[in-house]
Automatic annotation (TrEMBL):
GO terms for cellular component: ATP-binding cassette (ABC) transporter complex, substrate-binding subunit-containing. Keywords: ATP-binding, Cell membrane, Membrane, Nucleotide-binding, Translocase, Transport. Coiled coil: none annotated. This is ABC transporter ATP-binding protein. The keyword Transport applies. Residues 4-241 form the ABC transporter domain. InterPro entries: AAA+_ATPase, ABC_transporter-like_ATP-bd, ABC_transporter-like_CS, ABC_transpr_MalK/UgpC-like, Mo/tungstate-bd_C_term_dom, P-loop_NTPase. GO terms for molecular function: ABC-type transporter activity; ATP binding; ATP hydrolysis activity.
Amino acid sequence: MPNITLSGVAKSYGGGDYAVKNLDLTVPDGAFMCLLGPSGCGKTTTLRMIAGLEQPSAGTIAVGDRILDSVERGLYVPPEKRDMGLVFQNYALWPHLSVRENVEFGLRMRKVPAPERRARAAAALKMVHVDAAMERYPSQLSGGQQQRVALARMLAINPTVLLLDEPLSNLDARLRLEMRAELKRIHDESGATIVFVTHDQLEALTMATDIAVMNEGELQQLAAPMELYARPANRFVAEFVGSPPMAIVDVGAAPTGLAGSLLRFVESRAAGCAPAGIGIRPEALRLDPPPDAAWSEEALVEAVLPAGSSWTVRLRILDAELYALSYTPVEAEPGDTLTCWTDQMHLFGEGGDRISSWDRTKVGA
């Protein structure tokens, strides 16, 4: 399938408030694109416009050369003619139909012959590993199984695009982990283009080939997961992606305390660099003996929060509170003093955009 292209797309519900503002976005053929952002950022509205459930107030949505929406030209293709499958946050299964009948439902609406319906339903259920429950009813399935049936129903109609609106948010932690792996496998096996809406950064980072971060209706950054994490475009992306989030220390006109300490270090490595904010990710704030080339300061341990495979430590460094994330046991207790250090910083300008990154002795990465 050709690329999905949104050009200058906006959506207003009246009163001058825009849920989506002047969005330019391309979803490559075969991509697993995640629309990521907080509640109310416009990601679900964007998905619904791609599906045809909402019509844009401005702009154009096209698949290759085929225009699905054009406000300027007055064109609109209804959802059933877009060759896209949509999976909602709730499973939306018919309780009085068996699993097989639920999966066959869309095919029946398309008047697909019964033998072909059964074959396609069985193949879709096998793909999501629920074929053994084919004759059961939704009430006899777990939440994870019901979500797989909802996916199978969409896969059975063989859509070229699969649109998923936070389909894992109703599942418990273990089932969500299983479904992430399932969705990755389905994408690899089917080759379908997937657009996935989520507010969970972990889902986006672990599944997507591309992530579009949105905030207040605007696209903040479009990048591959590790590119997004390593080089966030601005402060919003830097603080939204990462858990615990990146700490950004504001640098004023005459910085003192932690801001002053960081700025002096940055200036010693890059003369003339004048960031408005300096960011440090918790996992980059280390508690072992520092190397010579790193920034370091004494830190007061305020709390140690073990999580089995990792330890989060709340630190008081000069006049600021920061978090460190360690994957080795932390023996310190509240009230202890440690030397903390980092060799990775992100530098942000007055407008919030990232102007540079520093890794050990190199600024400008």
